[in-house]
Amino acid sequence: MLKQTPLNSLHRAMGARMVDFGGWDMPVNYGSQIEEHHQVRRDAGMFDVCHMLVVDVTGTGIREFLRYLLANNADKLKEPGKALYSCMLNPTGGVIDDLIVYFMREDWFRIVVNAGTAEKDVAWMEQQRAAHAPQLTIKPRRDLAMIAVQGPNAREKTWQAIAGSRAATESLKPFQAAEFAQYFIGRTGYTGEDGFEIMLPVAEAGSLWQTLHDCGVGPIGLGARDTLRLEAGMNLYGQDMGEDVNPLEAGLAWTIDLVSPRDFIGKQALLAKPPTMHMLGLVLLDKGVLRGHQKVITPLGEGEITSGSFSPTLNLSIAFARMPLAVAVGDTVQVEIRDKRLNAKVVKPPFARNGKSLITI
């Protein structure tokens, strides 16, 4: 039996086409995926992300624990409400998950993990807590729902939907969060647009979803979510990274602090195995569609597409590809598509943000 979010009946009432997404019954679209994509780039759209898991870590010594647990450095979190994107690695340097951690108080940090890895993540955190910080408490919060509102008008429409929230959140910078009434509101997202990710009690989720809809925020399914994040240069766990992938070869070097003297899980493995590949973007120059697992052929060796799709913003086919280190931005490579070799240009992601293309062909 598929798991359902608190918004399942509302998705169906709004005409969603539902699919099995990692064991969850989720909306893939409500009509036109391309129209949903443009809704987010041009106005405001909302996403059901209740399947993701909020985990609260409380107690004394959390910062020291996170210094060891995470590849990014928790010492960057200096102001209450500040958020940090990081990978959580295994001892061989593979990615257990990518996540966001919010610093609220020295005795309370909040972590948001992916739906498909949630149980594994919590078990790993508990294992490390028991070994290194037994005084801490790690609490999964399935009592909380989460709705993302994204787009150039997302903040204004959220303020309209949640009376009084403007004063509490207008001054938030990207990757900051604040509490307001029963809401935890972070200026974060997975689309390359401005907006909020809102955590709130499960019982209140349906009411907020309907109110946002009444304020002109369109419901957006998984299909448009994928093309939006791809255009924005954002990795997807299980496709662009995983436990068998060196994160330095997955475009995630910026999330890994190898400079500070602190040790963290996976650090020694990364230092012992320098990357031989790197991840860059591709734009298809010929007619076709780039998809995951297609072979990339270069004079310097073969690579592979990890994520690929048609980009509604660019009106072109785009992809992430893991290729030999010597392949550079501006090079032309070939992609094997249905026994044909089609030309593609190597570019640096992101492809688009804030409603505009960032790529010149």
Strand order of the main beta sheet, please? 10-11-12-9-3-13
CATH topology of the largest domain: Gyrase A, domain 2
The overall average pLDDT, rounded, is 97
Structural class computed from helices and strand pairing: alpha+beta
Q: Structurally, how many domains make up the residues? A: 2
Q: Report the CATH C-level class of the largest domain.
A: Alpha Beta
Can you tell me about this structure?
With 361 residues, the protein is α+β, with helices and mostly antiparallel strands. It has 2 domains: 1-273, Probable tRNA modification gtpase trme, domain 1 (Gyrase A, domain 2, 2-Layer Sandwich), CATH 3.30.1360.120; 276-357, Elongation Factor Tu (Ef-tu), domain 3, CATH 2.40.30.110. 22% of the residues lie in helices and 34% in strands. It is built from 9 helices and 21 strands. It has helices at residues 8-13, 33-42, 62-69, 118-132, 154-161, 165-169, 202-214, 222-231, 267-272; strands at residues 17-21, 24-29, 45-48, 53-58, 83-89, 95-105, 108-113, 137-140, 144-150, 177-180, 183-186, 195-201, 218-219, 277-284, 295-298, 301-311, 316-324, 332-337, 340-347, 352-353, 356-357. The strands form 5 sheets. A 6-stranded mixed β-sheet has the order 10-11-12-9-3-13. A 6-stranded antiparallel β-barrel has the order 14-17-16-15-18-19. A hairpin with a 5-residue loop joins strand 5 and strand 6 (95-105). Helix 2 (33-42) packs across helix 8 (222-231) and helix 5 (154-161) packs across helix 7 (202-214).
